[in-house]
Amino acid sequence: MSTSPSSNELPRRRALLKGGLVAGAAAALSPAPGATAREAAAPGAAAPVTNPLVRNRADPHITRHHDGHYYFTATAPEYDRIVLRRSRTLRGLATAEEAVVWRRHTSGDMAAHIWAPELHRVDGAWYLYFAAAPAHDVWRIRMWVLENPHRDPFRGTWTEKGRIATAWDTFSLDATTFTHRGARYLAWAQKEPGADHNSAVFLSRMANPWTLTGPQVRLTTPEYDWECAGFKVNEGAAFLRRDGRVFMTYSASATDAHYCMGLLTADADRDLLDPKSWTKSPRPVFASDDRTKQYGPGHNSFTVAEDGRTDVLVYHARPYKEITGDPLDDPNRHTRVQRLAWHPDGTPDFGVPVADGPLPDLRRRR
Fold it and tell me: Which of 8, 9, 37, 59 satisfies CB 3.0 to 4.6 Å to 75 for a cystine?
């Protein structure tokens, strides 16, 4: 989620949201015990996934855990809390009860711009990575971590582990973590001192789930026109491995219809901390489409279909192009999913953001 240099005040945003623009924004509900009642009553595989999957939820992150559940979190348009849903099916996330597991502080740090949470299971505990800013300076955005040792992220206690310290104390957000060849990494977006951009994507190894160690290297910075529309932004990294290669998607430009996704590719046996290991696509791989009426697709994550082997792209987009005022004040970035295809050369085929409505079977064709 990129920022605007304007000094929009949070009370104005809240007034806008309370004015009825947010249809179905969820309040705190009881933690979901698993599948919802509606899901349990539905006829299993016969019911398709329908886009948008979850309305008014941007920067979506869906992970399928070994307990058989899909876990969902995303940015709430009020920017004031972290929510979780879970379901045994992707389509069940649409109606799953939503729990608020953490709320912003009322003063001091972590009091504003609660953005882009991601839920990860690391070394027997759950971690939530997210961005936040202090009440007195709402654009001084940094990355923070919560920890919950309970096996069920809807139970137990979420403890604030603190801010992720990077090489510079500058604007930073969109943390995501993954392991490769036994090492744990963190990727994130950050404003580099002296650079003429809003944010670039960096990578570092981790000493533990909230501490970086070793070199912090820049993998991509805005350079093409499609990365610099409105704002010069690279952010929202996500990783996928397949057939000896590592793929990193990222989002670029302002959060309106210009928002789109780029791609970096590396051989899995190369040093991921060497920028020379990565090849950058010169064109966006996923962008707005007038034919399907989907605009500003991006800030994605990846999951798998219920068959456990079909890759699924998770992202947000708006169903219209024209926006009045700051795009960050517009709450209608909805969570969407679609099957991720693959080109014959083994690279991902993102296609176009599909139109709203029921989706074809997400499972891989036999």
Answer: 59
